[in-house]
């Protein structure tokens, strides 16, 4: 352990908070933020409330509910999941159809120029056409993303992971986001970037789920499906988003079980059987819908054999023997090493981007440069590494003869003249001898570097396919090498090694284990390779974790998102609530003056406040004493609830008028900010609000001597947002939120464990 771990933890209260933005120097602060955030948890990210507010209104509503109401709500949950599955399948089909059509059109144009120019010696023309088309398509994706909805960039998996973990990522489940995502992914995939459309499907499924379950949209304010009104709460919405993400995985890979496991692995705090069942239903409906549509598109209506956007093709005749397992383990090690290298390059690049490429114009320019370079690299490697193979694919419209003799085609051209997904399949299934080792080495290197550069560009893009493609290439090279060593061995099957390489590389980059094993198994269509895939994924994760973290976690941490891992770190076990909590605490009394509520909401950005008795703010605020307490704990009230109470003026003549839970649901999720609520000086000074019916009297609290692991588990398992710390007399002494837990950053590299305390930025 290094010094930082053994040094005493400093109990700095109030927390070390840095102010990252002020209205006057917005531009400057953006730059500052770009390179300081790694040591800072961003205050921009708020938490979701996964804990029901069981106040008097809630109790009244629950008591009024008949059995029929309960059944109807449960049926509506299933109905929403049905819509989510079907719509996700439809969106996946749309994306797939558009990508195939535009890619075919693009390559037919380029092929025409190549065929013409091979004889006329004018090869620069197809190069310009290729680069021009790619640049143009990527321009569309980048402008939409960088200028209209930056959160649509990338796969969206890190953002969805955060959301399922309980962090509200601004704009992540908006209608505008999905529009940009869908158009963007079509343009960027057709634009020839080394990306896949599968990752973005997960994000799209999540947005669809969030949108449908709320039955209304900010964009179309008149549209309001009141039957879904009951679902307008973070708890319900997050469950549906889990279903949407699973439906996305399911449509992407034809992997309904993998989808469910993805949602559970990445998000669910505990195994909720009823929810898992509904998520599974959404996943099934999504793959079924996609299957039906694809069967029509492919001209075989109701021949339901197209369960996902991408499958690995048929491995039914391939098997493995136990003596190959050590080879698979070695491939897992390679996957871990290459994955860590990929992540390290991408990390350096991301930091560079955050510092220097942070304006819309620069982001668009960078995306176009990458598109043009990708096309140029493809073309140049085709020109200098023309690998001729006897014609066996003459039915394939993208087969290019290039400089090969008659009866032969260029296999280099054939992997370049198709989408990255088809290239993965070619590497899995093309017969021995199709690709020369030199072709594969050059291709692997180019794809590795380009994919690394591409991930993080301001275009919607998925990383699964590039990961698989890199691994499938070096996996095939492993197969070729084994064939060289054991020329007569029948067990050396190139496709098998290509598949294991693909799994190892992807595992080394993303470090997912349970869900990825099942996704790959479902995409291969048989369980023969279940064990080898699991082994390589585990080994790749172990090896990769020695050097750095998985790429999604890396991007989450670079952005300062307060995400909580599965388990509390073992080096934090001796930390007590007193060291973790914030102190002093902003609290409200059961009957609080309108003026004080306004003042606190205006001056502080906290989202939750303990409600107490026996407390006098005037006396407390003048006291400098460290050990002071803040009254007897009675419950918690949220900022959002106070905003509704103030807006509805629940004081004076209205003091006894009670709002209902519906009033709060109607205001969800965009509550009027305090600066837009105008309250006169007279009202501030003469009225008070009775908080008792609205506060959550059953909110969780802990005693000040509780240890970090207990606090962490409470937060993680129950999806908490606030945890009040009380002393043995039930007096409030502190407040803990997810940022207080997430700010202890523990890094483990080999035997060296280090811990640092991050700062928390203001919002
Ligand atoms: P969230 O942002 O997770 O929705 P929040 O806005 O209420 O919740 P944070 O932004 O996580 O709170 O809190 C930032 C810091 O302020 C944390 O250190 C937390 O302990 C502290 N804090 C939160 N609420 C209070 C409060 N009522 N009084 C004093 N400190 C608080």
Ligands in the structure? adenosine-5'-triphosphate
Shape: elongated
Fraction of residues in helix: 55-70%
Which radius of gyration do the C-alpha atoms yield? 28 Å
Mean pLDDT: 86
Protein architecture, described:
- With 763 residues, the protein is mainly alpha-helical.
- Among the domains are: 14-33 and 566-761, CBS-domain (Roll); 65-96 and 153-297, Clc chloride channel, CATH 1.10.3080.
- The chain is 56% helix and 8% strand.
- It is built from 29 helices and 17 strands.
- The strands form 7 sheets. A 3-stranded parallel sheet has the order 1-17-2. The chain has a 3-stranded mixed sheet with strand order 7-9-10. A 3-stranded mixed sheet has the order 12-13-14.
- Mean pLDDT is 86; it is low at 1-12 and 19-36.
- Bound molecules: adenosine-5'-triphosphate.
- Adenosine-5'-triphosphate binds at residues 15, 43, 46-47, 582, 585-586, 606-609, 721-722, 735-740, 760.
Write out key terms for the chains shown.
three-stranded parallel sheet; Clc chloride channel; CBS-domain; single chain; binds adenosine-5'-triphosphate; elongated; mainly alpha; 56% helix; three-stranded mixed sheet; 763 residues
How is the topology of this model organized?
Layout: H1 3-6, E1 17-18, H2 26-36, E2 40-41, E3 46-47, H3 56-64, H4 67-120, H5 124-148, H6 157-165, E4 167-168, H7 175-190, H8 198-214, H9 234-253, H10 256-266, H11 273-297, H12 325-356, H13 360-384, E5 388-390, E6 408-410, H14 411-416, H15 420-429, H16 437-454, H17 464-485, H18 494-510, H19 514-524, H20 530-547, H21 551-558, H22 577-580, E7 588-589, E8 591-593, H23 594-603, E9 608-613, H24 617-622, E10 632-638, H25 639-647, H26 661-667, H27 681-686, E11 688-690, E12 701-703, H28 708-718, E13 722-726, E14 732-737, H29 738-742, E15 744-749, E16 752-757, E17 759-761
Parallel strand pairs: 1-17, 2-17, 7-9, 12-13
Antiparallel strand pairs: 3-4, 5-6, 8-11, 9-10, 13-14, 15-16
Helix pairs in contact: 2-12, 4-5, 4-7, 4-8, 4-9, 4-11, 5-7, 5-13, 6-21, 7-8, 8-9, 9-10, 9-11, 10-11, 10-19, 12-16, 12-18, 12-20, 12-21, 13-16, 15-17, 16-17, 17-18, 18-20, 19-20
Bound molecules: adenosine-5'-triphosphate.
Adenosine-5'-triphosphate binds at residues 15, 43, 46-47, 582, 585-586, 606-609, 721-722, 735-740, 760.
């Amino acid at each position: 352990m290094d010094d930082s771990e053994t040094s005493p933890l400093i109990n700095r209260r109030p927390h070390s908070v840095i102010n990252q933005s002020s209205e006057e120097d917005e531009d400057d602060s953006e730059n500052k933020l770009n390179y300081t955030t790694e040591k800072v948890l961003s205050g921009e990210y708020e938490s979701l409330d996964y804990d029901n507010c069981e106040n008097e209104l809630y109790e009244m509503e629950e008591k009024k509910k008949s059995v029929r109401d309960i059944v109807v709500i449960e049926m509506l949950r299933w109905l929403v999941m049905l819509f989510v599955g079907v719509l996700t399948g439809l969106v996946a089909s749309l994306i797939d159809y558009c990508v195939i059509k535009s890619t075919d059109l693009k390559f037919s144009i380029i092929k025409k120029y190549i065929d013409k120019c091979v004889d006329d010696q004018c090869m620069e023309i197809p190069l310009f056409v290729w680069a021009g088309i790619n640049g143009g398509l990527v321009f569309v994706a980048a402008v939409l993303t960088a200028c209209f909805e930056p959160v649509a960039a990338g796969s969206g998996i890190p953002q969805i992971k955060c959301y399922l973990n309980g962090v509200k990522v601004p704009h992540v489940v908006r209608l505008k986001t999905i529009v940009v995502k869908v158009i963007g992914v079509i343009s960027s995939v057709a634009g020839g970037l080394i990306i896949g459309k599968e990752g973005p499907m997960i994000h799209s499924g999540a947005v669809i789920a969030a949108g449908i379950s709320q039955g209304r949209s900010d964009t179309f304010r008149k549209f309001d499906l009141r039957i879904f009104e009951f679902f307008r709460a973070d708890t319900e919405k997050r469950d549906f988003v889990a279903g949407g993400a699973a439906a996305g995985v399911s449509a992407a890979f034809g992997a309904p079980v993998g989808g469910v496991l993805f949602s559970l692995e990445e998000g669910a705090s505990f195994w909720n059987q009823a929810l898992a069942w509904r998520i599974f239903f959404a996943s099934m409906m999504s793959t079924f819908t996609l299957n039906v549509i694809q069967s029509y598109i492919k001209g075989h209506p109701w021949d339901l054999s197209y369960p996902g956007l991408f499958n690995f093709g048929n491995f039914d005749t391939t098997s493995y023997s136990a003596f190959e397992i050590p080879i698979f383990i070695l491939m897992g090690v390679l996957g871990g090493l290459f994955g860590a290298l990929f992540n390290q390059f991408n990390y350096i690049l991301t930091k560079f981007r955050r510092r220097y490429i942070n304006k819309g114009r620069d982001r668009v320019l960078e995306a176009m440069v990458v598109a043009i370079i990708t096309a140029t690299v493809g073309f140049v490697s085709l020109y200098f590494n023309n690998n001729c193979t006897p014609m066996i694919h003459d039915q394939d419209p993208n087969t290019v003869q290039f400089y090969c003799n008659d009866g032969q085609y260029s296999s280099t051209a054939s992997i370049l003249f198709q989408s990255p997904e088809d290239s993965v399949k070619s590497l899995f299934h093309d017969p021995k001898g199709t690709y020369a080792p030199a072709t594969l080495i050059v291709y692997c290197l180019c794809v590795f570097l380009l994919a690394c550069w591409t991930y993080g560009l301001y275009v919607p893009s998925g990383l699964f396919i590039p990961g698989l493609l890199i691994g499938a290439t070096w996996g095939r090279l492993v197969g070729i090498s084994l064939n060289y060593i054991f020329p007569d061995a029948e067990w050396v099957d190139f496709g098998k090694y290509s598949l294991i390489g693909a799994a190892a590389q992807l595992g080394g980059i993303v470090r997912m284990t349970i869900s990825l094993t099942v996704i790959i198994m479902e995409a291969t269509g048989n369980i023969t390779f279940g064990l080898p895939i699991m082994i390589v994924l585990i080994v790749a994760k172990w090896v990769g974790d020695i050097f750095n973290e998985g790429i999604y976690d890396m991007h989450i941490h670079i952005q300062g998102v307060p995400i909580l891992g599965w388990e509390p770190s073992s080096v934090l076990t001796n930390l007590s609530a007193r060291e973790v909590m914030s102190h002093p605490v902003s609290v409200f009394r059961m009957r609080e003056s309108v003026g004080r509520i306004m003042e606190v909401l205006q001056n502080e950005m906290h989202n939750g406040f303990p409600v107490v008795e026996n407390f006098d703010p005037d006396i407390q605020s003048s006291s400098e004493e460290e050990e002071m307490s803040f009254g007897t704990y009675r419950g918690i009230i949220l900022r959002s609830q106070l905003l509704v109470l103030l807006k509805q003026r629940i004081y004076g003549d209205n003091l006894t008028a009670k709002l209902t839970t519906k009033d709060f649901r109607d205001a969800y999720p965009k509550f009027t900010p305090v600066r837009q609520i105008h309250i006169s000086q007279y009202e501030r000074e003469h009225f008070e609000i009775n908080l008792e019916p609205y506060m959550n009297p059953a909110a969780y609290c802990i005693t000040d001597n509780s240890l970090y692991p207990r606090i962490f588990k409470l937060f993680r398992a129950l999806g908490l947002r606030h945890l009040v710390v009380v002393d043995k007399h039930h007096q409030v002494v502190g407040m803990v939120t997810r940022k207080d837990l997430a700010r202890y950053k523990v890094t483990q590299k080999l035997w060296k464990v280090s811990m640092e305390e991050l700062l928390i930025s203001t919002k």
